[in-house]
Design goal:
The complex is a heterodimer.
Chain A (H helix, E strand, L loop, with lengths): L25 H19 L10 H14 L16 H9 L1 H6 L7 H4 L4 H18 L4 H13 L1 H6 L5 H16 L6 H17 L7 H11 L5 H16 L1 H8 L12 H9 L13 H12 L1 H14 L6 H15 L10 H25 L6 H35 L4 H13 L8 E3 L1 H10 L7 E3 L7 H6 L13 E4 L1 H6 L6 H8 L1 E6 L10 E5 L2
Parallel strand pairs in A: 1-2, 1-3
Antiparallel strand pairs in A: 3-5, 4-5
Chain B lengths: L1 H23 L6 H6 L13 E6 L5 H12 L6 E8 L3 H11 L6 E6 L5 H11 L6 E4 L10 H12 L3 E4 L1 E3 L6 H24 L9 E4 H4 L26 H11 L4 E4 L6 E3 L5 H21 L8 H11 L1 H21 L4 H7 L3 H23 L12 H31 L7 E3 L13 E3 L1
Helix pairs in contact in B: 1-12, 1-13, 1-14, 7-15, 10-15, 12-13, 12-15, 14-15
Classes of the chains: A mainly alpha, B alpha/beta.
Chain lengths: ~525, ~450
């Protein structure tokens, strides 16, 4: 038997963080499990029916499908729009929906949303653990998870197959590792690794990495700090660098003339036309912000205020910095604001808000407190009044929106369109169908050959591979198309200038089925092209 | 086929490199671990007596004298020094006898009648009856011993009920050449970190000096005066037929469950120098590697109680050889991944082993910073050499070339072992680590 010297420390005394073990303490375990179960229940219920399927969901899922089927990083040319790690994870989880639902005629994108539930569950647990590691009280940690998972904004957006949701799970994991109570070198490396996965899942998550560095700074020990940072940065950098290395291997790091390359992809993302200021009515940014506010003004307002206040408290500061950086980026007037950008802010808003409430309650109960009975009663009453007022204001709003999310079926018309195609075009052969990405996987399932005969409308006139597969002369290529499923999204985007072939085909078509009255502004129409 | 080969090789190399990284960083895992690697606070009491063995061979008087003087400055009140020389080396024996005059009550000399290597000398001292201390310590001719070391070791023996205490050894002359920089860092990681893990896991290869052992664990059984032969059942002292007698002793003692304690504090390490030429570096490394092979073959480690420990033993003893193997395999693997037509996934997996290797390099850069503050920093007496930007660059650029040296030494060791050549190749000492540089005429010692 041999051991190293096991003795009291001679150097700087070790700052023993409260030893806190998650599984060891049953109260924490059951609280976390309970609130996570509630979040899962609310989010899973009617997940396929609400909200309306979004084109990007179909895009990411189709890319996951491409990986699963050995086609490559995407069913069409992968053009470095995003790093692929997000949908690589989706493809690894693709067996979950196909295990539960696999009847033809179901809307693939909608029922595949259950892929997001593991991410939601993991994120909820991580929010709880992080809140506790940030020294919040148990009830505050539960509050953080509730804010994070039950806000109508979350119930809407976290259900959707968005890369942001995946990135959130990983960045939360990175924060939890950075707060390692044992200040373990490998945990700090794991933090770097998780941050790398987060950024490679959705590149905008890089905005949270400075805050992560602050979190790590607060949690390392002076004697091992250097090694912790080397491990953290090393793991992060060595993972991130895989992306450009992948591009190099494909010979697509840089290509001139806007040919597909990592450089072109980055340039595209960084020079996307700005959405305008969120404060300027009429700008895209304003519309997007008000879209979010429609779902839940509470978490957004409280979150913004609280992350700013949180800057004042050491324990909350890392999360506050992440929140503030993300908010500042969102309100800069010139940049492009993606519609799902808010997803990345939600955990920081929730943690910031719960943290401030935690501080506030502690202040009300303890500031200059003396053990006088009436003083104690007054303090408790004050807390109770605030809690009741907040609950009366928030709970009915959230309840109404969440129950809407759990009951409305906004995707019925998509399902009916898919079913109509299943029954009326049983053997498509070499017919070509043009769809938006929400239906692309359903068409692949219905027998249209993916990629060249089941065509994502944005690829015609844009991806030369798709264009060349159409045999006709450039002006007559629209005649090679047989069907078009025109959704409101396609109607909005199919302009004569951007995608002339699709536009031309729509002009020469007749409606064979429609999901309801109101025309393509609100209904789905299936068109047959008449050459 | 090529793809499968790349896949398998990459994953194996990646696992090995990751394990090495894991172990190399043992001391910095948590602040608690780091704190536990240093010597404990001394309680002021001393309870044990020490015999310090100092084998010298073809040594210059000033080098040895410096060593002995330093030892005499020790704060410990109960120790003796035994200088060991060879019968074939009367000149050095003369030096030893002159040195013994400095403190005749504390310094004794022993002549090895049939000197063959360091072990025969040490064993001669054990047989001579001159070793009276409870604890036997071993030092080399050029070692700079800290005055408080013995008091700390004494304390460690008593407070930990240790059977063996290994103190830190540090090569100092990072500035001499590109390989000595890497060599210094190697020692830094080994004594600062890795050895503590080995001790914790109960399988340790000891170093050649600053090793302290309870006398009864070394001495021959009473009445036994016969020297140990290969394969003999009674084992005592140091193995005279093993080229890495220090490693062998550690393996033998820890395999039978003896408690080994490792302690490192920068101010108390024994300071040494790197081999002065690449040739002697290669010779030294070859000897160690061949010694490791011999220890592996001898199989004392098979007595370890748990399978995990036996795996650690296999892994530790074969380190030089898989190091050499990965030195060859990683570049080939990378080249196949980049230049041949394999699927992109395979190509990406092919550089997997490079990732832990790069992390090792990053950590080495961080450790170089620690090394410089601990040994040449603002608060240190010796500020003769500074670690600057150039040193970091040298460290990075030197990496692949040092790999080549290690690879060569490993292959050479296998070659020599297969040919049955196992005589000692000596390492020269020029005193490059001493603060006042000695004249550069090379002398040699074991």
């Amino acid at each position: 038997m041999s051991t190293t010297l096991d003795r009291p420390v001679e150097r700087a005394p070790i700052n023993k963080v409260t030893e806190w073990r998650f599984l060891g303490r049953s109260v924490d375990f059951w609280l976390c499990a309970g609130i996570t179960a509630v979040v899962l229940l609310v989010q899973a219920w009617n997940i396929a029916g609400y909200p309306t399927v979004f084109d990007d969901e179909g895009t990411y899922l189709a890319q996951a499908w491409a990986i699963d089927h050995g086609v490559g990083m995407a069913p069409y040319t992968y053009w470095f729009d995003h790093p692929p790690l997000g949908w690589i994870q989706l493809s690894a989880l693709a067996w979950i929906p196909s295990l539960i639902w696999h009847t033809p005629g179901e809307l693939v994108v909608a029922y595949s949303r259950i892929i997001m539930l593991p991410f939601t569950a993991a994120s909820s647990i991580l929010v709880y653990v992080l809140a506790r590691r940030m020294t919040m009280a148990r009830w505050a940690a539960v509050l953080a998870v509730a804010l994070f998972g039950l806000s109508p904004l979350s119930v809407t957006l976290q259900r959707e197959i968005f890369l942001d949701n995946i990135a959130v799970t990983w960045i939360l994991a990175a924060f939890v590792f950075a707060y390692s109570p044992r200040k373990h070198l490998w945990h700090h490396m794991a933090a770097g690794l998780c941050a790398g996965i987060a950024v490679l899942s959705k590149e905008t998550m890089i905005l949270a990495v400075p805050a992560l560095c602050v979190a790590l700074w607060q949690n390392v020990h002076k004697d091992t700090r250097k090694y912790s940072y080397v491990g953290f940065v090393g793991a992060f950098a060595l993972l991130i660098v895989q992306y450009p290395l992948y591009a190099i291997l494909k010979g697509e790091l840089y290509q001139p003339d806007n040919k597909v390359s990592l450089f072109t992809g980055l340039k595209y993302q960084l020079t996307r036309p700005g959405s305008g200021s969120v404060f300027n009515p009429g700008s895209d940014g304003y519309t997007i912000l008000h879209n979010w506010l429609y779902y839940d003004p509470v978490l957004i307002t409280a979150g913004v205020v609280c992350v700013i206040l949180s800057l004042a408290f050491r324990h909350l500061r890392p999360v506050a910095i992440a929140g503030v950086v993300l908010v500042l980026t969102a309100i800069r007037p010139t940049g492009y604001l993606p519609a799902m950008y808010i997803i990345q802010m939600l955990p920081f808003f929730a943690l910031g808000a719960a943290g401030i409430v935690d501080k506030g309650v502690a202040f009300l109960l303890n500031y200059k407190a003396r053990p006088v009975f009436w003083q104690q009663v007054t303090r408790l009453t004050a807390v109770a009044v605030v809690v009741v007022l907040a609950a009366v204001y928030v709970v009915p709003k959230w309840y109404a929106r969440d129950s809407q999310a759990d009951t409305q079926d906004l995707n019925a018309k998509y399902t009916r369109a898919v079913q109509w195609i299943h029954t009326h075009i049983p053997h498509p052969g070499n017919d070509r169908i043009v769809v938006d990405d929400t239906l692309w996987l359903d068409m692949a399932e219905a027998g249209f050959k993916p990629g060249r005969y089941d065509i994502y409308f944005f690829k015609i006139d844009v991806d030369p591979d798709v264009d060349n597969a159409l045999p006709g002369a450039p002006a007559d290529k629209w005649k090679d198309l047989t069907y078009i499923v025109e959704t409101p999204y396609m109607y909005d985007n199919a302009s004569a200038s951007a995608i002339p072939t699709v536009f031309e085909a729509i002009q020469h078509s007749k409606v064979v089925w429609t999901s309801g009255p109101g025309g393509v502004n609100s209904a789905i129409e299936i068109l047959k092209v008449i050459p | 086929m090529l793809a499968v080969a790349v896949l398998v090789v990459s994953i194996v190399l990646f696992s090995i490199a990751s394990a090495t990284l894991w172990w190399m960083m043992h001391a910095w895992r948590t602040p608690e671990v780091l704190a536990s690697t240093t010597f404990g606070r001394v309680d002021g009491e001393t309870g044990l007596s020490f015999t310090l063995l100092l084998p010298i061979r073809h040594e210059r008087q000033d080098v040895v004298e410096n060593t002995v003087q330093k030892m005499l400055e020790s704060t410990h009140d109960n120790f003796e020094i035994v200088i060991i020389t060879g019968a074939d080396d009367p000149e050095t024996t003369g030096i030893a006898e002159r040195l013994a005059q400095i403190a005749p009550e504390k310094i004794f000399t022993v002549i090895d009648p049939a000197p063959r290597n360091k072990s025969t000398g040490l064993n001669s001292a054990l047989l001579s009856g001159q070793c009276h201390g409870d604890i036997i310590g071993v030092f080399d001719a050029e070692d700079v011993v800290h005055p408080e070391l013995l008091a700390h070791v004494d304390h460690a023996f008593r407070s930990e009920r240790a059977d063996v205490v290994q103190g830190g050894v540090q090569l100092m002359n990072f500035y001499t050449s590109w390989y000595s920089l890497r060599n210094c860092l190697e020692y830094f990681f080994w004594f600062r970190s890795r050895l503590h893990l080995q001790a914790e896991k109960g399988f340790i290869t000891l170093g050649g000096n600053t090793v302290f052992t309870r006398r009864e664990l070394l001495e021959p059984p009473p009445g036994h005066t016969e020297r140990m032969k290969p394969g003999s059942t009674i084992q005592w002292g140091w193995d005279e037929y093993c080229l890495a007698e220090d490693c062998e002793l550690g393996v033998r003692l820890s395999s039978t469950g003896k408690k080994v304690v490792v302690a490192y504090s920068p101010e108390m390490v024994t300071r040494e120098e790197t081999p002065d030429t690449i040739t002697s570096f290669i010779k030294q490394r070859t000897r160690w590697n061949q010694g490791f092979l011999q220890v592996y073959k001898k199989g004392e480690w098979k007595k370890l109680p748990t399978a995990r420990q036996r795996w650690l033993a296999r892994f530790t003893l074969s380190t030089p050889f898989y190091q050499a193997a990965s030195g060859i395999a990683v570049p080939i693997d990378l080249a196949i991944g980049i230049f041949t037509k394999v699927p992109i996934v395979i190509a990406m997996i092919s550089w997997l082993p490079a990732l832990p290797a790069l992390l090792v390099l990053f950590f080495e850069l961080a450790a170089l910073k620690d090394f410089s503050t601990e040994y040449y920093g603002k608060e240190q007496p010796d500020r003769s050499h500074k670690v600057g930007l150039g040193t970091y660059i040298k460290l990075i650029i030197g990496t692949p070339f040092f790999q080549i040296l290690l690879m060569f030494a490993a292959l050479r060791a296998v070659w020599r072992e297969l040919r049955g050549r196992n005589e000692w190749e000596l390492t020269a000492h020029v005193g490059a680590h001493l603060v006042a540089p000695a004249p550069t005429k090379a002398t040699t010692s074991v």
